[in-house]
């Protein structure tokens, strides 16, 4: 009996040893297969090549000297190269059983990412799906000393950046071509430069992004050509815009791509936004349709929802060059503050815009607009107030563009305007004194006294009774919303000042 027990125990131990050996052999075989697969791995539309990958089952660790990844996105090709890859806390069992990858930490050193646009007319070659990964879960992902390049179809570089990225609790399905959204993240980028179009480039010295806010320093939109050369690139009139800021801070950002692209923020603040706009009116006008602000928001390709947007200490300079003129006439608004609330295309809210500034460094300008974005008639209400303005300061614009010099003092002006995409009605109340104009020759050096006399007989020299007068304007749909507002102000001025 004792011998039988001993024999049974021996057989049991032998069986366990055989099973353990078989299991270890199976695991080592699988590890060897995984290491071999990593040397030439294809998952969905991605081809991964690893140099000398080493997988440790005991440590749950994967090391590789170099990783190369080629892939196809929806509209782009992707190429990634790294100098080293370290994966810690790799749980091998879920992968063997259920094709799920569970990782505690991935550290990638010096990754270079290149994204190139694909020709939309070409047939996209898709890689064969050889490995089916159901889900990937990464607790910590770190990319250090990275570089990013975006190239066009002809391989011109249109975006460059250096970056550091920390992501936490990221999950995604490799078979679904969507951007994985981590629960927590920290991204630092430096020396960002890209070309949004052939005529302009954008520079951003640094971007810092985390779950609570995104911060951009010294955002700068720069035309690639000076004003004269810029005009030579155009066939029709188009604004040349240079724009720069001190900082842009986006608070509590939320973004998602599936099922619809959506972008949210509780508060966006832009500090010291300086904008220089120049238009060469010697070129033929662009007669294409220009939508209203509300329609532009409704037709955005993304869902937008910003509770509040604020611009502090900004400025705007606008210049126009007319035929037979050497210099552009300019108008300027300084000390600009802008507040926009309920900037969205999601809900039936009314967007409110409040704008204050110094007009030509003197007149106090205040604008308040209400725009119900959801209204398909593009309805709006705008009130414009201008106080304490010496009209002589308009000479910087009118002397060059209209051959007119001004004298007089505007004490108070109120324009109340309401309308839609087609037409607008409004009222104007003005108080001014000592208004007089001088009509100049083309060179601006000599007054045309006869024309000045005729013009001044048509203009009220003063208006102190604050009488409200009405006007109507028909919109030119080939012009912008801001041109529409200027036509309303212009009509209001004529209505109030001309006998």
Structure description:
Helix content is 18%, strand content 51%. It is of the alpha+beta class and 499 residues long. Among the domains are: 1-38; 40-195, no CATH class. It has an eight-stranded mixed barrel. A hairpin with a 5-residue loop joins strand 23 (329-344) and strand 24. The longest helix has 38 residues, at 2-39. The radius of gyration is 33 Å and the shape is elongated.
Q: What layout of secondary structure does this protein have?
A:
Blueprint: H1 2-39, E1 41-43, E2 46-51, E3 54-56, E4 61-64, E5 66-72, E6 76-82, E7 84-88, H2 92-98, E8 100-109, E9 112-117, E10 135-151, E11 157-172, E12 184-197, E13 200-210, E14 213-217, E15 220-223, H3 227-232, E16 240-244, E17 247-251, E18 254-256, E19 262-265, E20 267-271, E21 274-280, H4 293-298, E22 303-321, E23 329-344, E24 350-359, E25 363-372, E26 380-390, H5 395-401, E27 404-419, E28 423-439, H6 449-458, E29 469-474, H7 481-497
As residue ranges, the low-confidence spans are: none
* Main sheet makeup: 8 strands, mixed, barrel
SS field, number of helical segments: 7
Helical proportion? 10-25%
In round numbers, the mean pLDDT is 85
Structural class, from helix and strand content?
alpha+beta
Assess the beta-strand content as a share of residues: over 45%
Radius of gyration: 33 Å
Total number of strands: 29
General shape: elongated
């Amino acid at each position: 009996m004792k011998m039988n027990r001993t024999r049974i125990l021996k057989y049991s131990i032998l069986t366990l040893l055989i099973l353990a050996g078989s299991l270890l052999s199976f695991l080592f075989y699988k590890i060897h297969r995984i290491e071999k697969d990593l040397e030439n791995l294809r998952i969905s539309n991605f081809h991964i090549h690893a140099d000398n990958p080493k997988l440790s089952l005991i440590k749950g660790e994967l090391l590789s000297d170099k990783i190369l990844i080629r892939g196809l996105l929806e509209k782009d090709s992707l190429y990634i190269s790294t100098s080293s890859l370290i994966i810690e806390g790799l749980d091998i069992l879920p992968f063997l059983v259920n094709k799920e990858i569970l990782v505690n930490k991935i550290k990638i050193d010096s990754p270079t990412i290149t994204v190139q646009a694909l020709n939309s007319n070409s047939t996209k070659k898709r890689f064969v799906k050889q490995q089916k990964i159901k889900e990937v879960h990464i607790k910590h992902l770190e990319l250090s000393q990275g570089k990013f390049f975006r190239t066009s179809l002809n391989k011109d570089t249109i975006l460059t950046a250096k970056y550091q990225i920390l992501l936490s609790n990221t999950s995604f399905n490799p078979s679904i071509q969507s951007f994985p959204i981590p629960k927590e993240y920290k991204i630092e980028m430096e020396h960002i430069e890209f070309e949004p179009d052939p005529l302009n480039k954008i520079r951003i010295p640094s971007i810092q992004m985390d779950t609570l806010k995104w911060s951009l320093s010294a955002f700068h939109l720069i035309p690639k050509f000076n004003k004269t050369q810029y005009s030579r690139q155009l066939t029709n009139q188009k604004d040349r815009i240079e724009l720069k800021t001190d900082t842009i801070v986006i608070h509590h950002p939320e973004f998602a791509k599936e099922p619809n692209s959506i972008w949210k923020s509780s508060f966006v603040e832009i500090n010291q936004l300086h904008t220089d706009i120049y238009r060469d009116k010697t070129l033929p006008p662009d007669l294409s349709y220009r939508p209203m602000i509300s329609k532009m928001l409704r037709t955005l390709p993304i869902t937008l929802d910003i509770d509040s947007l604020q611009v502090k200490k900004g400025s705007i300079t606008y210049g126009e060059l007319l035929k037979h003129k050497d210099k552009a006439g300019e108008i300027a608004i300084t000390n600009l503050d802008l507040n926009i609330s309920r900037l969205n295309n999601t809900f039936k809210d009314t967007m409110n815009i409040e704008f204050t500034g110094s007009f030509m460094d003197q007149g106090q300008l205040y604008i308040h607009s209400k725009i119900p974005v959801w209204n398909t008639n593009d309805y709006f209400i705008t009130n414009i107030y201008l106080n304490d303005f010496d009209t002589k300061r308009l000479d910087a614009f009118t002397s060059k563009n209209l051959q007119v010099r001004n004298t007089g003092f505007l004490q108070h002006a109120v324009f109340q305007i309401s309308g839609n995409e087609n037409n607008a009605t409004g009222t104007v109340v003005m108080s001014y004194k000592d208004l007089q104009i001088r009509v100049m020759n083309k060179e601006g050096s000599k007054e045309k006294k006869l024309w000045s006399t005729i013009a001044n007989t048509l203009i009220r020299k003063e208006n102190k009774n604050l009488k409200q007068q009405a006007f109507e304007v028909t919109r030119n749909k080939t012009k912008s919303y801001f041109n529409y507002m200027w036509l309303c102000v212009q009509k209001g001025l004529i209505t109030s000042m001309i006998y």
